[in-house]
Amino acid sequence: MAQFLVLARDNGDPRREMGRMSPEEMQRIMGKYMTWSTRIRDAGHLLNSNKLRDGEGRVLRRAGGKVTVTDGPFVESKEVLGGYWLIEAADYAAALALLQDHPHIELWPNASLELRQVHDFTQR
Amino acid sequence: MSAEPPVPLAGLVDHLFRHAAGEMVAALARLLGPARLDLAEEAVQDALLRALQTWPFAGIPDNPRGWLFQVARNRALDRVRHETMSRDALQWPGGIVDLAQRGDGSDGGRIGDEALAMMFMCCDPALGRAAHIALTLKLVSGFSVEEIADASLERAPTVAQRLVRAKREIRERHLALEIPLPRELAARLDSVLEVIYLLFNEGYAAHGGENLVRADLCDEAIRLAQLLAGNPQTDRPAVEALLALMLLQRSRLPARVDALGDLTLLADQDRSRWDRGFVEAGLRHLERAAAGTEISPYHIEAAIAACHATARDAASTDWRAILRFYDDLVALKASPVVALNRAVAVAMAEGPEAGIRALERIGDDPALAQYHLLPAVRGGLERRAGWKAEALRHYRAALALRCSAPERRFLERQIAEIESELSATAPQ
After folding, report:
1. Contact, A111 vs A105, CB < 8 A?
2. Which of B15, B42, B57 sits opposite A50 (nearest CB)?
3. Is this structure's pTM higher than 0.90?
């Protein structure tokens, strides 16, 4: 088994940001996320998940023997790294299969999921 | 991947967001004043959005309502601080601190009070009927503009504009966000109950739309009446009667539409599909409605609904009792629609021709000129009386008026059946 980090990126949704989504609609969407994560967890694939705080972060660099800290990272686009899931799967193909019907990309037209395998040096 | 399982979510009851939205807007508006409705709504929307962006990762909190109340409160607080900073005059009402605590339901009575106060303000006689409905659905029920437009068969911009205007009226007229005093209550309650029953009927009949039945609206109307019945200040016999009426009618919803979404008439409904839970709750509230001496039209309509609900089958319906109730109803609230329903009872108690005679007496009422059920009912009675040509004419007249798609299919079916009967018996 290998571990994979699933990064949830989001470029904003006009209806959502304009406050035009109804509470019922939001709950329905919530239900889709929870259905997905419950299924993955019950099948033993979900190790951990966390929301990252929005609109903040620090970037540290060291230049000329001095550490500089800047706010960020704020890329030019309004893309936001909202949070992540840490999942377990045999390989990339198996991990991708778990994400096929992920609500994050089903629901938000501008959103994406980034899948990265954790490098486990104990394995070849 | 496996098919999506049914979604009984741990910690998320059905319509939690919708109901919590109404409660939070009411609670915030109470603290900020009705002039700040927009701010209250924005703070609530922010809180729900925050949940949507957090819970998928962090999981649903143990007390989701409390979580939402807390975030909404903080959002509202931030906005007020931001606005008043320059004036250096932050006068935040002390009560706001309790707001989130109340989200856990430990003080449900208070939340109910606020929602009720909001309901009365939304249905203030100073505002028009259309505004009553839009405001109630938006502020008490947590519907979006689009959902209200769907429910009232209007365009979303029309609804949005109506809401803006109504909220301005609320500000300019300084409408109170309070449960009316006992001496004003009965009159103010009338308007609230009328709006609730309109919502219910909109859900039950769904004129013009594809779905004959939108149980959502019916259930929301029932919830609003339950809020009124659950508060000693507003638990009047008329409230109990309306609640009984809606519960009894709601019990028939599962049988009212068949698997194809087509209308099934009361006589043809599979009564085993009537929801006994709703029937029993309805009968219980009808009993409570009998406390006191007040008799409202809802009492009588509920009594009629109870006659249907307790009849073993269509044939054993006590139509004579129902007809007597209709006579009472006409005496209490004469309206063309009541007269139409009474004519049906006459037909069932005394035969179709008597029903047709009763219909003829109301046939010219201009209020019913565009009402498809008048010619549709008449066509039905004429068919039963064996007057096929007349039945055909009236079914066609009904089809020319506005009705829901399932009703349309029902009428078309009747017309096709009569036409084939006529051609089978026509001389060669």
Report:
1. yes
2. B57
3. no
